[in-house]
Amino acid sequence: MELDLQELRKEIDQINEALVQTLEARLDAVLKVAAYKDERKMEVFDRDREEQVLAKTAGMLKNPKYAPALKAVMGKIMEVSRDLEIELIAGHMKERQLKGEPIKVGYQGVAGSFSHEALEDYFKGVPKAELNYLRFEDVVKAVKNNEIKYGILPIENSSTGGITEVYDLVRSYDCHIVGEKCLKVVQNLVALPGASLEKLTKVYSHPQGFEQSRPFFSRYPRIEQIPFFNTAKSAKMVSESGDLTIAAVASAKAAQLYGLKVLAPDINSESTNTTRFIIIANTAEARPDADKITVVVSVKHEPGSLYKTLGTFYACGLNMLNLESRPIGGRSWEYFFHIDLTGNLNNPQVREALARLAENCVYCKVLGNYVADKQD
Fold it and tell me: Which site from 128, 201, 254, 279 is most exposed, i.e. has the minimal number of CB atoms within 10 Å?
């Protein structure tokens, strides 16, 4: 029997019509799932569920040779469905903002800290309820327990490098990075009115504050450096102590807030000293203008594995911005690599790169796709 192309096309058109109706019904169900997740503050992406769906649908085929094609199609459908869920949840959040409902946001430290300043800058004009926490981990736990919608954490300083504890927390608690804020950091030596640099015996600060101001303190070896929770909390403690022989490393804003005077301004060694903060959430967020990606991978413990992994970005035409290694607990000389790169998850080159990473790495997870802070 001779094949008739027009008849075959009519058959495909009929199948397409049925597919459209089925797909529309599926997307209607997806939006109901999104509403359910939004109400209960659940994550959009459920890797186990998606893998189950792919395996189940492939098992329904009468002809197994179509399995790879079906998985590719279903994978794309689920990707589009995720985007719809994220769009709906983001829309609901926008509606709540327009109604003036405050968003709960959290930071480590006290008012006047650099984290608090970064939070204020990032959420400027947004109705918000601010909560502060003692430790970085407390902020992360508050996000994971849906106590707050967003948390802000310092992750990298231009003078002293990555803040390793934050890298470990974001990965281990499976948080999502949804934004970033770069803040110029100016450290000052602050003390109570009446105090003098000559009579100081102790100074309190977060270790990063000391590290950023090392050349200054090398000139005053007699002053004992005492690590404290953070710079603003150090300033608050000095203010409440009434002791004229102690000081803190903190911002001018913290000094003003806690009634202190600046004994020595701008003591950090680098004039361009900047800290990059990340905004974390319990669920991923998709923005069409997102242009930065953070991914964490663990490579095979064999020669050349890291070289091949990093070569993936070059092969796909992607610009890698940062690489931070963190040891894997219980496995000597093996590491997680946190990588920042430019791009959007909807970009074909990015999708190709991530597919190669997933195939060649022992572990691969996208922590977030967000808008880079262009501040110098």
Answer: 201
